[in-house]
Fold:
Amino acid sequence: MSVAEKCETALGWRSDRSAWVSRGVRVLLCVGAVLFFTGPLLTIFSGAFDDNPDPTRLSVVPDNPSLDNFAAAGENRIWHYLGNSLIIAGGALLLQLSVSVFAAYALARKKFRGQAIVLLAVLTTMMLPEEVIAIPLSLVIGDLPVLGISLKGTLLGVILPLGAWGFSIFVMTEFMKEIPVEIEEAATVDGAGELRIFAQIILPLCKPALGVVAVFGFNMIWEQYLLPLIVATDPSDYTLTVALLSLRSDDQVGPGIVLAGALLALVPSLLVYLALQKSFLRGITTGAIKG
Structure:
């Protein structure tokens, strides 16, 4: 058996006369998977630019291409809600990356009593559903401990609770543990201080993990619904995610306006992934190889 035939057999391709049947089935399955996953996205895109979309009919190409839906969405303050979401996502992601990096450095590169308990507590926060902590979180935001101030009705009230995420801390911790200690020891011998080692050695080596954490962290923050709803005291405090559900329940708002808002909600996540694609894929690949 030739090398080509061995490769075809390993991949599941048949090399006999009935190979076209096997390949035909696989092509149909691939096409079906593509349609299954891209169908809703194409429908959102088509409906957002369609002057009068029919919610009961699947359409890939707009029948009456127009920007009227976006104009109507603007009249319903969709751009204001988008601005709220962008401010929250940007601020919370920056805070989350900072907390994750410093917490991971302490857990991965330092030794202290109770280290395993701290890491276990971080992982425990990932197991608690939002509904369980909704009421306690609302009480804390309404009366911030020590300071005694209320963050209700402010964007900061949404940003601060999202500033620490167990998943980000765990990923960064496990990645930093894989960095050889010898690199840090060599830098210390050369006279580098701890802050310089952290900024010029540890962080650059963690770029793949930062890409993974940034992509997942942004999506987690962007998809938040319960927390912005708890903090909001007025409809003007809504994020785009909360506003879309509010528009969907309004009988005066057509489906095209909702789809235009949904398309706007998809764009930031897509842009973040495209911007961090190389680091994200490198981080996933590195984790798979180390595992």
